[in-house]
Amino acid sequence: MTDTIETPTAAPKSRFAKFWDSDFAWSFRHSPVAIIASLVVIVLALAAIFAPLIAPYNPFDPATLNLMNGFTPPRTPNAFTQETFLMGTDDQGRDVFSTILYGMRISLFVGVSAVLLAMIIGVILGLMAAYFGGWTETIIMRIADVQLTFPAILVAMLIFGIAKGVTPPEYRNEMAIYVLIIAIALSDWVQFARVVRGAALVEKNKEYVQAARLIGRGSIPIMFRHILPNVLSPVLVIATISLALAIIAEATLSFLGVGAPPTQPSLGTLIRIGQGFLFSGEWWILFFPACTLLALALSVNLLGDWLRDALNPKLR
Amino acid sequence: MSLLTINDLTVEFPTRRQLFTAVDHVDLSVEPGEIHGLVGESGAGKSTIGAAIMGLLDRPGRIASGTIKLSGEQISGLDAEAMRGLRGKKISMIFQDPLTSLNPLFTVREQLVETIQAHLGGSDAEANKRARDLIDRVGIPDPDTRLDQYPHQFSGGMRQRVVIALALCTEPDVIIADEPTTALDVSVQAQILDLIKELATERQVGVILITHDMGVIADTTDKVTVMYAGKVVETGPTSQVMGRPSHEYTKSLIAAVPRPTLKLHRFPQISYGGRETRFAIEDMARHWPKVDNDTSKPVFEIRDLTKKFLQRKGLLPWDRTYFTAVDQVSFDIRAGEVFGVVGESGSGKSTVARMIAGLYPVDGGTITFEGQVVSDLKNRAALDAYRKNIQMIFQDPYSSLNPRMRVDDIVAEPIRHHRLMDGADIKRRVDELLDQVGLGHEAGLKYPHEFSGGQRQRISIARALATQPRFLICDEPTSALDVSIQAQILNILKDLQEHLGLTLLFISHDLPVVRQMCDRVAVMKQGKVVELQETNSLFANPQTEYASELLRLMPRLDDLSTEGLSAEG
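Predict the joint structure of the above. Result:
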């Protein structure tokens, strides 16, 4: 009933002021969880992006490594070199703090790229399924169903295995990251396709789509210019939550040894290296990368949760 | 002592930006056996009163002041537990949509028996007997079979009868009916209203009937309260308020109601609360290409038009079953006229419109536009040329505009698609159109949600006129609008036909509106045209039984004041 009140026409506001005043921004300002989560995400993302400037050491430059520094506990001077490290060092004397910063770079890069790729595939296929219906829809959605019957990890490992077989050995390490991205994206597009199809089926029957068809607009402009903007909010929510899942999936694959190579360790690779030393007392090699992964995935997930609530008019 | 007394009731909705007073110091009383109408346009606060009585205000709404008393006992401000005892037992409610107010997973018997036992207790046998009596009483034939069916097996009208039975099963003192017939066809509406009237007298129940429809009010209620912006503007016996309204708002509301008996040249432009918006038809006519309407020739010749929808899918053709929505329909539309198609829901009238618009492929028959067969056009250029001349105004102003597109882009889309102009010319044309429909060109920078229903329908009209079409299809263009806004939009459509020489196809279920708008009318039933006549002779002298039945069920509006109305001619 409130929607029929005429709001007095105020002086034109700047774009930022308009955004700041919107219900969306208001909901953000009143959610401590969302504020903290986004702060954590921003800090971690900035730390990853500017890793070369922040990290005290370059863990991938063999010239700076000193094996004598191996297994130094956090904030304790090394017995031989008297150097101290914020989070200690691993077996090869690499600074754990620096490797986390560089590892997070890879984790975030893989996660974001995989989600973007999954989103593009899923949105396009979902829109096509909803708009064309019939055989197109049946084929796309059956492929999606088949995809869902395999565990995502299995799909990723399969793709990874095939890629490893067909690429020449000298490219394997460089290819590994991209194969990882494709593997995660291919196991993740289904939920985008399903959500987009569901939302687009509703939008497709609305009169504005008929109005566009009446004007004579073709399928592609109607799908992308009319329907797509109206189904984007659930896509945004899924993308955020998938980002957390993709980061974890990457970590899992790397932990299993089929992901990022030890020369370019991601958080998952670091955890795999670290777990070998957990029971011999060198806990920090595992503990700090694991905490970082937890903080990153949890914050992104909480942000996605908040986004879902904020974009859902029913819960307002 | 009155049955239900509302004293100085104020309901507020504190929102983020402002405190919205939905109901503002309202007094109201209902006697046993009386039907009290609450009438007003959307946003007037009439449904909020119903919700406040039931203790079902949506959050964050609250009763800020005043009292609600039932048989002398105060019921406002009771706690949730006490309210639950009252709700359903002493006060029942009938909602607009009978489909969503019944649980689809339970049979009618289960729902009735559960409600009876929850409130009255008693054995299964007693409850079952009571359920059967009620179903019989509300006029559902064959109660023993029907009781064990599920809600989806009932038609809309029968379902609403079940809802009424459900509302009656605990012998309530008060029933609140919130738009009980808005979702139903005219013929069913009349039966449901008669039933409510009978039951109110028979059981001495006080009924609050909330509606926006003046016809329903005039036909059904004993007393009426007219609301505007949360306030009561007028209250009294129905015949007095409808026949001799004293408040300006009531007068404007009554004047805007389309009459079945009197064809007006234009609806009177009585406005209340500064809502009038000018529609600059003269400006528009000056820039419009001159059309020479040769009234003797048909614009459209429609022959044996048929549309089948797939009812059951199947891999093999012989496994599929079809439902014939439009069955060999033929008619001509003459240049410059307003051709009406009326019918109840499911009669196929919208399907005909959509086939003419080219939105649905044709399954049989031909559509000929100015001598050219257009029903099987494949050639892109020819199709575009046809589409440029045909535009459509849709029913629901809330879904016919893309919510994520700016208004100027919406209006410019047809111009851009047909490459009628470029760059700065498009902007000038769009500004001009928005000015002419009375929104002002600054409206172009906003999004559709910033406008009211009537304003959105004006945006739709601007979009439809952007390509300067010759033919306009109006599919129930005002059925989602308030009556005063409806009058404005209908006036605009009349202007378009008269000054721009547009030919209109006007689809509606509302006979009084059709009477006001159309030159000739086709009556459709179950996919067929059963009668086609000049409007005046159809209303005076219907030839078929179905048409006369429809006319008979039309709300009588004879009691309504005719102040400010002038007949055509």
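Confidence is low (pLDDT under 50) at residues 1-11 of chain A.
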